[in-house]
Structures are given as structure tokens and as C-alpha cells.
Design a protein that fits this description.
Layout: E1 3-17, H1 23-31, E2 35-49, E3 53-57, H2 64-71, E4 79-84, H3 93-97, E5 100-104, H4 116-126, H5 131-144, H6 160-172, E6 178-182, H7 190-207, E7 210-214, H8 218-224, E8 227-232, E9 235-241, H9 242-249, E10 252-259, E11 272-276, E12 280-286, H10 292-302, E13 305-311, H11 315-325
Parallel strand pairs: 3-7, 3-8, 5-6, 6-7
Antiparallel strand pairs: 1-2, 1-4, 8-9, 10-12, 10-13, 11-12
Bound molecules: adenosine-5'-triphosphate and magnesium ion.
Length: about 325
């Protein structure tokens, strides 16, 4: 696969001016304003392949939106280099705009008092999309995202989830090579999320569109991304396959044992009981220490076991461990 985006030594410092209360402080501020510097990105480096769906995750304030804003050219960095589809985003923004689409879950790009359909027609003119292509694409996306019944309703009257689906269409109407999605599933219910996941996958497969998606919802990542970048306080703490992430960081297993009859099982000391009913016992057990297999064999031998389900901890928990360790 060819490289679509290269990011080198990317730093972004925000300067925020302190505002004291009172007239005296306001007058003083006219001559000397006090400020503080926030290092939102501390020299991050990564690449994105053409046709990849990359997950960008991290806790609040990690620097995800800052990176997305730099990648789409609306913010320039303090230091560092970005090459995205041959462009430096913040200096070649007009030409580059033809190649990317962006959705900010926290901010609407649709005209508030107009239906999304009207904004779509504005986009058509702005991006010079031929009539036939526009009509075909709009019809296709409206159907795929199931918004036939709402895209002619004023944006202000739409629910957050409905609006988000319409926002995604707006970002993709000009068939960009790159789509940046900053928390696109915010406010969506399970059904809408599933629709959006299917939509992204289909567009990615059919058009080879590259996606970068930031989210707090691990379900989005599990459904869409092979590779993830985890960012914490402006630094990359993990960059690799999602499957390796789970392999490397899974330190315990969840075990659920169902019994054929009422059973009180004695757990080893290292196990931690989660719940117990007469027929089902759930517990977690560390996998690094020896003896888990022996314990399972013993369990089956000594108790009337009907079924055993062994599962990994939820991905959120694994990621929390990484934030805490700050490992690379
Ligand atoms: N315009 C700004 N001026 C000053 N500081 C800012 C500005 N924008 C962001 N920051 C700060 O930079 C840091 C990174 O913010 P950013 O919005 O990139 O985080 P994020 O990872 O997107 O977080 P979230 O998950 O909450 O959306 C935060 O500490 C934030 O307060
Ligand atoms: Mg953000």
C-alpha cells in the first residue's frame, strides 16, 4: 500500500491569555497580558496508508482534535511537517480541499436553518460536482444511511444522531480521497452507529477512500479499524494493530462457569469473584501467573460443569492500562 499521509515532529502549542476580573486588571492587560502555553501536541510522528481506516483514540484533551484540525489545514502547527496526498494542508488549503472531507461531531457544518438537502446543493456548486454524479451519489448515500425521511427537514429540527448522518453525507459528496471524522458517532444510538459503520466500510471498499476516525467509542474502532494510534497528553503511546494491542496488554481473562446443578465452587486466591448465582459463577483471573489451565482442568474434573466461557477484558480497560503506564 502507498503512503497517503506522513506526519513528522508535529508540535502544537496554544497560547492562552489569562483574564483577571475588575477594571484595574483590564487596564493593566492593555499594556501587559499574561499568558500560558499549552503543549497540545509534543512532536508526534505517524503515517497513514492509502485506503486505510485508522483509529485515533485517547482520553479528553489528548490532542486528537488538534491533530485533525492540522490535517485538514484549519490550524497550522508550531513545528513539524505534514504531507497529506501531496499537500501541506495549511499552505495549500484550497487545492487540498478537493481531496478531503471532514466531520466534527461537536460542530455542525450544515446550515442550521436550512434542510441538509439545501447545503448539499451548495456543496455541489462549491466543489463543481457535475449534476449526474451529484444526483447519483446523493441518492446512493441517502439510501445507505437511511435518511430519506429527514434530509429535507431543517437541520435545527433534527436529532443529534440524524444530523450526524447528514453531516457525513455533506463531507463525502465531492468524493474525497481522505475523510477525517472527529467523533462521528456522538449522540448516535446503536442502530445509527451500525448504519454508519456499514456506510464507512462500503465507501472505503468501493472507492478506496482513506479514513481517520477519532472516537471515545471502542465499538467504532473494533468495527472499523485494523490499526490504532493512541495519543495521551500530546504524545503517541501506541501505534500498531488493534489485535496486537489486545494481545500485548491483556493481563487477565474473564471466566464464566455454568453448572448442571447448584454448585458452590472454591476459587483460587488469585481469582477475583465478579458474581455468583446457584448455577453460574463469574470471576477474573490473571493470565501471566502459572496455573490457569490446571485450574480449568481441575474445575471440569471436580464440579458438574455444563459450560465455560473465557473472554478478554473490554478494550476500554486495556487502553486505560496503557494510559496509566504510558508505555510505547
Ligand atoms: N483553541 C485552543 N486554545 C487553547 N487551548 C486549546 C485550544 N484547543 C485545544 N486546547 C487544549 O489543547 C489540548 C488538546 O485539545 P484537543 O481538543 O486536541 O483534545 P482532544 O483529544 O480532541 O480531546 P476530546 O476527547 O475532549 O475531544 C487540551 O488540553 C485543550 O484544552
Ligand atoms: Mg476532540
Amino acid at each position: 500500500m502507498a503512503t497517503a499521509i506522513t506526519v513528522r515532529g508535529l508540535k502544537k502549542n496554544y497560547k492562552t491569555y489569562k483574564r483577571e476580573e475588575g477594571l484595574g486588571a483590564t487596564i493593566k492587560a492593555l499594556f501587559k497580558r499574561e499568558f500560558s502555553i499549552k503543549q497540545a501536541l509534543k512532536g508526534i510522528e505517524f503515517e497513514v496508508e492509502k485506503g486505510e481506516i485508522l483509529g485515533f483514540i485517547g482520553p479528553n484533551g489528548a490532542g486528537k482534535s488538534t491533530a485533525i484540525k492540522i490535517l485538514c489545514g484549519i490550524l497550522f502547527p508550531t513545528e513539524g511537517k505534514v504531507e497529506s496526498f501531496g499537500y501541506e494542508p495549511w499552505t495549500q488549503r484550497i487545492k487540498y480541499a478537493m481531496d478531503f472531507g471532514v466531520v466534527f461531531g461537536q460542530k455542525s457544518q450544515l446550515e442550521w436553518d436550512l434542510p441538509p438537502n439545501d447545503t448539499y446543493h451548495l456543496i455541489k456548486v462549491l466543489y463543481n460536482v457535475p449534476d449526474a454524479t451529484f444526483n447519483k451519489r446523493l441518492k446512493y448515500m441517502i439510501k445507505l444511511l437511511d435518511v430519506e425521511h429527514i434530509y429535507k427537514t431543517p437541520t435545527r429540527d433534527l436529532s443529534l444522531g440524524e444530523r450526524m448522518k447528514c453531516e457525513v453525507i455533506a463531507a463525502l459528496l465531492h468524493n474525497p480521497k481522505l475523510v477525517l471524522l472527529d467523533e462521528p458517532t456522538i449522540g448516535m444510538d446503536v442502530v445509527a452507529k451500525k448504519k454508519l459503520h456499514g456506510f464507512i466500510k462500503k465507501i472505503n471498499e468501493e472507492h478506496g477512500t482513506t479514513f481517520i476516525i477519532t472516537t471515545h467509542d471502542m465499538g467504532d474502532i473494533e468495527k472499523l479499524c485494523k490499526r490504532v494510534i493512541i495519543i495521551n497528553t500530546g504524545e503517541i503511546v501506541y501505534n500498531g494493530l488493534l489485535s496486537d494491542l489486545t494481545k500485548e496488554y491483556i493481563k487477565k481473562k474473564f471466566i464464566e462457569v455454568k453448572f448442571e446443578e447448584k454448585t458452590h465452587v472454591n476459587l483460587p486466591k488469585r481469582a477475583c469473584l465478579i458474581s455468583r448465582t446457584p448455577y453460574v459463577t463469574k470471576f477474573e483471573i490473571p493470565i501471566k501467573k502459572k496455573g490457569m489451565d490446571d485450574f480449568i482442568v481441575e474445575l471440569i474434573k471436580e464440579y458438574p460443569v455444563e459450560d465455560i466461557i473465557i473472554s478478554d477484558p473490554p478494550i476500554e480497560e486495556i487502553i486505560r492500562d496503557i494510559y496509566e503506564n504510558d508505555k510505547c
